[in-house]
Amino acid sequence: MTNQTQLSTFNFEQSSIRVIAVNNEPWFVAKDVCDTLGIKNPTQALENLDEDERAMFNIGLDQRVNFDNRVSEINIVSESGMYTLILRCRDAVKKGSVPHRFRKWVTAEVLPQIRKTGSYTKSTTDERTGLRQAVSALVSKKGLLYSDAYTLIHQRFNIEHIDELTPEQVGMAVEYVHKIYLEGELIIDEPKKEDEQLLRLLVSAYHFCYEAHELREKIVKTYIGWDIDRHFSPHYLHNLGIPLEQFLEKTRDFIHSNSERIMFVKGMNHLLEEPKQTARF
């Protein structure tokens, strides 16, 4: 495997985990993962992975300093392969165990950072100067609080702070604020009844998926180790594990943000319609 790569090193407790981004997809150095999980026979563990879950990585001259100089290739595992190695550990679902802590750490810290830095470029403070000026003008004209004005931008671009905007989005945000300034209303459609009905259906689907995830956890606890492969398809159990966990997390955030958005849009439109009354408070 010799495509475009970027090496990052992350620290998990006392262990260093080297992650290689190959075409923006994370691949983990197999030795680091196996050592951390306490896998006694790494060779067999890797052989039992699917072919698309493992690969050999050619170490370039510029990266030799990060590896053993005596080798030119190393074993790496994909994100799916890494999760499979964790799943096959005896204590994989036991809270507080090393495999459990490692899985939570990878999911919460490593993967989000790789995906964010690999394909996301933040704007600079200077690039956001025009946006801050536009917000100040809007606050002055409409009698809004600065926090409310910036929340308009956060809601519009689904961010928590304006420093998350890309340079391209900064220009779009300035235009958006100017339109509110000139037209006096949010450039967001009033929530429709269909939107609220869809949100309720999504909430129901979320609970069904959550129950499926709980069922999978019970199955894993009942059938330990290689028994899982004999009784159930690893593919299905994998999809009901980490991928479903990530889906549930994203769905929960989507439900929360859209619920807040519906209430926010209704409230902010009211504030923008009565700026003088708002200013007195």
What does this structure look like?
- The chain is α+β, with helices and mostly antiparallel strands and 281 residues long.
- Helix 8 packs antiparallel against helix 11.
- The relative contact order is 0.09.
- Strand 1 and strand 2 (15-22) form a beta hairpin.
- Helices cover 59% and strands 11% of the residues.
- The protein has three domains: 5-119, Mlu1-box Binding Protein, DNA-binding Domain (Roll); 126-187; 193-273.
- It is flat and about 70 Å long.
Task: Looking at this protein, list some descriptive labels.
5-stranded antiparallel sheet, alpha+beta, 5 strands, about 280 residues, 3 domains, Mlu1-box Binding Protein, DNA-binding Domain, about 60% helix
Brief rundown of the structure:
By secondary structure, the chain is α+β, with helices and mostly antiparallel strands. It has twelve helices and five strands.
